[in-house]
Request: fold
Amino acid sequence: MQVIHHEQIEARPVTTEGAHGATIREVFTAETGAPTFAMRVFELAPGGCTPRHTHPWEHEVFVLAGSGCVEGPEGCAPLSPGTAVLVAPDEVHSFRSAADQGLKFICLIPVEQTCCR
Reply:
């Protein structure tokens, strides 16, 4: 069993084209011994965003703090602490924080995939 506080992991800027004001902490990965799922914590500065993108795997998101929206095919859905999101495979999406506050969320993906680094 591994127990760690996410702030012990270095926050690195998301360098994917289209990202702005976003950092990632890769909490559990294949390198740390996670066999199935990778857990990442994203933080978006006020007005920050992840790039609009798609990939062939699903992922789950759980909002920890802040506010913003997730943009998908049907438009933007509001996000606040406690909101959960299931992004289907091949669904175009991006996450945006509110202009006046940041957004912090957990994102789970299959461990063998990489996205938004």
